[in-house]
Design brief:
The complex is a heterodimer of chains A (191) and B (289). With 191 residues, chain A is mostly helical. Chain A is built from eleven helices and no strands. Chain A is 58% helix and 0% strand. A four-stranded parallel beta sheet of chain B has the order 2-1-3-4. A four-stranded parallel beta sheet of chain B has the order 7-6-8-9, with helices on both faces. A two-stranded antiparallel ribbon of chain B has the order 5-10. Classes of the chains: A mainly alpha (191), B alpha/beta (289). The interface between A and B is large, with 58 and 57 residues.
Chain lengths: 191, 289
């Protein structure tokens, strides 16, 4: 007789959203805690990765989407590599961030979201990351004008920062960004 | 010399990590490895892309794989560990799911090429040839810990690179050019990566742990293969010392800089002066082998 695998059926719409975004089924998690044990940043998180996954399964949307956890994820992939159930935890973190942004929820660590935005708009416009421009863009978003100023000056003196963006490939990246957005909008409206 | 490898430097090797670019080129030159930079390459999207759009994070790397395929070579070399990981991830995801491959192809308005091997310099330099023959300088005073960071080996099912929790590729290369490398348990610990821009406190803590461990096993230098790791370990080292009242003074090298030094390339041709932690004292003992 075939047994129904109760762990793979999902009652949580958030778990479904994560599955749709990342292909990762959090219901496979049996709470061993290896992701939390190996995570280098878990000490600074409000919920450990294993707890966030459990909250996703329980449908605790508010707790999950307002958590600091996914914004602190450094994408080091230790959790992903060690999960005995082969849940790609780092991808789950990405999916939760994307879901939160799509729902218009203010990120619990706004600087991190600002960094993503500053970096991506820089890549889109310049084709390649123009670090000085990206840092300026980030400061305009976070108002942390003096953060790392001394270090930045020293890097500049040592010739580690370029003054002028190359703009090579900028036409291509603008087009790729636009087309990706169109495809994603289309997928989302049909989903 | 006909190029065997399409070379994808990525953004960092054109700016904050330019030492990695010049030293990689110098080593290729010494070993007769033919490389040609991909013309018109674009940013791989790095973590801001995969944190906000899966399709974007796959399409940007694939644009570069397409450009490499157009050059008519089978092998693409990406020294930056983060670029290397994004290129391999794009290829892995497209191979796993035809729907994903179709979407990437739709975004780029072209078919995806087959059979481009994405390689790290660590793979091409330990590819069977005896690199010890090129050694002219003795660097025996160095006691190096190899810091691989996260993205060379993880996630293992995608990267298929060495032993993911305890890689040896960099150790073996440096040992074969006469440099002592030490065993230590922080080879693949995370430095915090791009959190340096936003949550510097986290990076200072993680970096301190790495520097502490390097000191504890008796290292006098660290070798890396990732420009982001280099920024955090070298550029932020004095900040870590100020924050935690410690004193390390540990020079951080790209492993290609150490190889090039062993092959007799002068230090001033390798961008060593761009490092925050000076290696002058340590390297004053370098002598012809």
């Amino acid at each position: 007789m075939m047994e129904t695998n109760v762990t793979s059926a999902s009652a949580s719409p958030l778990a479904e959203a994560v599955l749709g975004e990342s292909g990762q089924n959090v219901n496979l998690c049996y709470q061993c805690g290896k992701c939390a044990a190996g995570c280098p940043v878990s000490y600074a998180m409000d919920y450990k990765p294993v707890q966030l996954i459990h909250a996703i399964r329980l449908g605790m949307d508010d707790l999950v989407l307002n958590s600091k956890t996914m914004w602190l994820c450094a994408s080091c992939e230790t959790c992903t590599t060690r999960c005995p159930q082969e849940v790609d935890v780092a991808k789950v973190m990405d999916a939760v961030k994307i879901t939160a942004l799509r729902k218009g929820i203010k990120p619990a660590i706004p600087q991190v979201a600002s960094f993503y935005k500053a970096a991506l708009s820089n890549i889109k416009i310049c084709g390649r990351m123009y670090e000085l421009g990206m840092i300026m863009g980030l400061k305009m978003r976070t108002f942390e004008f003096f953060k790392d100023a001394a270090m930045g000056m020293k890097m500049f003196r040592k010739g580690k920062l370029k003054m002028i963006p190359s703009l090579t490939g900028a036409m291509r990246t603008r087009r790729i960004f636009r087309r990706v957005k169109n495809i994603e909008d289309k997928n989302h409206s049909t989903a | 010399m006909a190029a065997k490898y399409a070379y994808y430097p990525g953004c960092s090797l054109h700016s904050t990590g330019s030492e990695y670019d010049v030293s990689f080129r110098a080593v290729c030159d010494k070993l007769g490895v033919g490389i040609e930079e991909i013309k018109g390459w674009v940013c791989c999207g790095t973590s801001p892309a995969h944190c906000t759009s899966k399709l974007l994070s796959l399409a940007l790397p694939y644009e570069n794989i397409c450009l490499a395929a157009k050059m008519g070579v089978n092998d693409l070399v990406a020294p930056c560990a983060a670029c290397f990981a994004r290129l391999k991830t794009a290829q892995y995801e497209a191979a796993e799911d035809p729907k994903v491959a179709d979407q990437i192809s739709e975004a780029l308005e072209k078919p995806l090429p087959e059979s481009v091997n994405i390689l790290s310099p660590l793979e091409i330099f330990c590819n069977g040839q005896d690199i010890s023959k090129a050694v002219t300088e003795e660097l025996s005073g160095l006691k190096v810990v190899c810091y691989y960071g996260c993205l060379l080996t993880r996630p293992s099912k995608v990267m298929q690179f060495d032993e993911c929790e305890y890689p040896m590729a960099m150790d073996e290369i440096l040992r074969s050019v006469g440099i002592t490398t030490l065993d230590w348990s922080y080879k693949t610990e995370c430095c915090g990566g791009a959190l340096a821009m936003t949550r510097t406190d986290v990076v200072l803590k993680l970096t301190r742990d790495i520097l502490d461990e390097a000191k504890a096993v008796g290292a006098n230098a660290i070798a890396v293969g990732c420009p982001l790791c280099h920024v955090n370990l070298d550029t932020r080292q004095e900040e870590v010392e100020a924050e935690y009242g410690t004193n390390y003074g540990l020079p951080v090298f790209y492993f290609t800089q150490l190889m090039a030094l062993a092959f007799g390339v002068p230090a001033d041709k390798l961008g060593l002066q761009k490092h925050f932690i000076s290696a002058d004292g340590l390297l004053s003992a370098v002598s012809p082998a």
